[in-house]
Amino acid sequence: KIAEHAALFINGFAEETKFPFDDFHYPNTCQDIPRYGDWDNLPEGVRVQDIQYRTYQPPKDSVPDGTYIENVEDLVLLYVILTHDAPEATIRLMESVYVPHVTKFVIHVDGKEKSDATYERLVEYAKEKNAMAIKVDGKEEYIRIVPDENRVRVNWGGFSMVDATLKALHTVFGLDHYDDDHPEAEAHDIDNPHAFQFHKLIHLASTTYPLASNTEIRDTLSSYPLDANMLHVILRPNNPTPSVWNYFVECDDALHRIYRLPALNYNRGNGVDIYTSSQWFIISRQFAWYLASPPEGSFVEYYLQYIEHVVVADEAFFGTVVRNTHFCGTLHNDNFLHLQFDRWENEADGARDQRKCVMKNRNHCGRSPTTLTVDYLPVLELSGDLFARKFDDNAEPLIKDYIDTRRLKEEERLKREAKLTKEMKQNGTDAVLPLEDWEFQGEGVMVVAKETLTDDVPLCMGLAKEGNQVMLQPCFKDDVPPTLSPGWEEGAVIFEELEGLNRWDIGPCSSDGELKRKETGELEMIPGEYSERGPSCVIKI
Fold first, then answer.
1. At residue 250, what are phi and psi to the nearest 5 degrees?
2. Could you tell me the maximum CA-CA distance found in the chain, to the nearest angstrom?
3. CA dihedral 529, 530, 535, 537 (to 10 degrees)
4. What distance in Å separates the CA atoms of residue 362 and residue 339, rounded to the nearest whole number?
5. Residues 234-271: pLDDT tens digits?
6. Cα separation, 75 vs 90, whole angstroms
7. Which of 145, 214, 321, 408 is most buried, with most CB under 10 Å away?
8. H helices present in 178-298, as ranges
């Protein structure tokens, strides 16, 4: 295989003709997102955040009926999970997000021999759960495992990561039931009799775990249109130098660099750009079908020939597809997944993982996500994301237990609030939900340097008038300190008497431990089960 692809370049040299993909061209059919190739010289009035933080959540009264799901309880979620080992971790993930009758799963197990035991365990689990659903509940199967013959041998940085996802999408739509010998016409139908029915497809690794309760996950996703596609895409066209954009062949469970590969760019006449994105996403049924069964002559069909030879293809495929097709108008640029990356492999301590150092410059290496630890839990809770990765049950066995405890409390809180809101609406009163302990009656706070309380000029934590520098600065205007009564810090102050930007809102706060305001005005931080210093809080001006 390596020789076959190397010959393409040798022939190019010998015949003085084009190399592979030199003449790649496909028209970009995205009409809803303007192209800004040079972020250092944007047009007046256009900011980077306006481009990058794209949302797709139009007001419900501005769109046709059926754009949003009417009843969140009817929302059917389908999870596609890629795994290679630790089958019990995959099972725990599935059971953590399972809501009876409205949750389905498709699992792809790495095709390497060392993953066979994982495959057999998950096949057994699926048979057991499907049989119970059919026999006890009278429901159809809700778990599918990608068939053994379609399993992909997945390698870091290889196109195999994309291929495994596409194979899983084939299983989602029942395309495993059709082959070249039996190409029934119904196989080209999104609603063929073997296709799973669902509203949203959530693509995860088995090292992922939910942060939010199932109620919050479902409420959040139902607040977006049914055709919304939630990906994390860097919306600046990728324009790498030729020396780092190489043609690779995946063979014998490794990547082999052959020669340089033309980097696709609109300004070079390719019609499209490459966009870096995460391979983990939440997408609509229509986009999932487009990926699983690309129409003849479509961009996906054409691009697949190219992306097969790109290193870390998973980060250059899905975002590029959505950004260069008509699906761009449905892009909500947030995949609701918290991901913390480790150091580059060439900067890591100890022996390198050479699989991640495949470029000509052996110090140009890739990296992988950091294993999340218990001390990171407050950050995860305050991230606002629905999911996070990666978790390792052997390295950090308790972290999922803590998350489960919080998810259960969150589930109970949301149910209480839903019940209270319903009762208030029935009684004709406004739904005013109780404040959390850290909300301090909904008022702002001043953070005063304790040693300056009785000084002529008390100092508070504030924000500089320009930039975002935090500093100690006078709490009040010049004429106010002489009028302060002893113990002034125990009560309230008049907003108009404050000097500068030093009124802060506190919250939300993490839930482990307690935060209380004492009569002296001091905040008492009470340690939690795993947070020695008590809750962590977001503060903002």
1. -95, 120
2. 91
3. -150
4. 26
5. 999 998 888 889 999 999 999 998 988 999 999 999 99
6. 23
7. 321
8. 214-222, 285-292
